[in-house]
Amino acid sequence: MSQTVKSKETGSLESMFSCSESRILDHMITFRDFDYSISDISRSVDIGFKTTLGVVHKLQHQNILVLTR
Q: Is residue 56 part of a domain?
């Protein structure tokens, strides 16, 4: 059974910058001890899969997120 963790509170980045990048970064910072697929991130932050995919690739290219598997 798969569990999806959703952050119910607005993170500190999202409270300052309301964009997809800040929502994803808030989620990744809050749950940094876990590995997530693009689908998991998309569901958790309630952003479309294609948008999440583009943002994650952008953040990887900028060396902000690192692929671990």
A: yes
